[in-house]
Every structure is written in C-alpha cells, then in structure tokens.
Amino acid sequence: MSNRRHPRPWHRDSIFGHGPRQPLNRDERARCKYLLNAHHRAGRITRACRDIGMALLKRLSTTGRCDPSHATLAADAGCKTVKTSERATVALKALGLLTWVRRLVRSSGTGWRAEQTSNAYVLLPSLASLNAPRPCDRQNVAETNSFDRSKEYSFVPVFSDDERAAALAALAERRRVVLEKMQTRRALA
Predict the structure, then answer these.
(1) Alpha helices (runs of H) in the chain, residue ranges in sequence order
(2) Residue 127 in 3-state DSSP?
(3) Which residues contact 1 (CB under 8 A, 6 or more apart)?
(4) Number of neighbouring beta carbons within 10 Å of residue 73
(5) Is 18 helix (H, G, I), strand (E, B) or coil?
(6) Contact 122/99 with Cβ under 8 angstroms?
(7) Using CA atoms, how far apart are residues 173 and 189, in angstroms rounded to an integer?
C-alpha cells in the first residue's frame, strides 16, 4: 500500500443520506444564542463567527435538519466571502457549539462516483461551555473531523454561580417577554 494521499480526502468519514439531525427546543435555541453572544463578548469568536452561528440557528428546521451551504451562511450573515463562513464553522466546532458530517450523493451520470452535496450540521448547546479551552485564533484553528455517531458525549460543562445566574435571568426575561406577546395577541384576537 502506498503512502500517497487520497485525491479526494473528503470522501473519508463521509456518509450517504441525510446525516444526523437534532432538533432544538426553545430553551436550547435561547441557550445557543446566549453562548454565541457570550463567546463573542469574551473575544473568543469574531462578529462574523457569531453571525454565522445565528444563521445556522435560523436555518435549523423543527425536525433538526440543518444543511445550508457555506455560500448561504455567508449571505445570511452578511459576510463578503465564503471562506469566512468556513473559518467560522471551524471556530464554532473548536468551542463545542457545532459539529457536522459531510453528505455525499451518487453522480447522476455514473452510479459509482460520489460527490459532496453539503454538510449536515448539528448544534450542540447542551454540550458547549463558556469555559472555552482556548481563545479562537481565527485562521490557526485545528483541522476538522467529522461527526462520530458511535461516540457518547460525556463532557459536563462547568459554570460559575454568576454565569448560571445570568443565564437563568436571561431565560426568565425571555419567557416573560414571550408571555406578554402571547397575551397581547390573544387580547387583539
């Protein structure tokens, strides 16, 4: 066996089909937004990276399907280049907020060739922590690996009492605002 590199290394660790899906409820979406903003304020991610994370949340369906292209994410976030969205997804993965699997399909002309269509993204707000291992140094981020469905996540986030209180206060305020809007709509109807 030769030591040559595979001409299409993205075939390795790729899957055919839809990929993993994980729907998020309202509280998990709020936690994801909170973590994106907290990491941005702490200087671990850039504004563009935060906006890419928000675009991923916007594109996440109720069934958990999230497979937009990098160009779509860049357009949603208002970024100038697609490379920005690629770097942002790598940075979000380094923080533990995101993971993905490369999705493949068979070529239409020949049945034996495979082409990558998009990535299937999975947002992981329950596994992410505010205690990041290191600040994101933008372009010098570790290489990505694909999503391993056999792996069990045993990471337990560690929060200080102040961070926990701030998160609970933010959720309580969000709940109050939503309930007020619902009552206003009911009164108007």
Answers:
(1) 26-41, 47-59, 70-77, 82-95, 161-188
(2) coil
(3) none
(4) 25
(5) coil
(6) yes
(7) 24
Query: pTM of the entire structure?
Result: 0.59
> Do the beta carbons of residue 102 and residue 121 sit within 8 Å?
no
pLDDT in tens, 106-125: 677 666 666 666 777 888 87
Structure tokens at 26: 């309202």
Structure tokens at 119: 């990535």
* CB burial of residue 139 (10 Å; 0-12, 13-18, 19+): exposed
Q: For residue 75, with 0-12 CB atoms within 10 Å meaning exposed, 13-18 middle and 19 or more buried, which class applies?
A: middle
β 98-106/114-123 pair status: antiparallel
* pLDDT tens for each residue of 31-53: 889 999 988 888 888 999 999 99
> Are 117 and 11 in contact, with CB atoms under 8 Å apart?
no
Question: What is the chain's mean pLDDT, rounded?
Answer: 77
d(CA 34, CA 168): 11
Nearest of 94, 102, 126 to residue 29 by alpha carbon: 126
Do residues 53 and 77 touch, judged by C-beta distance below 8 A?
A: no
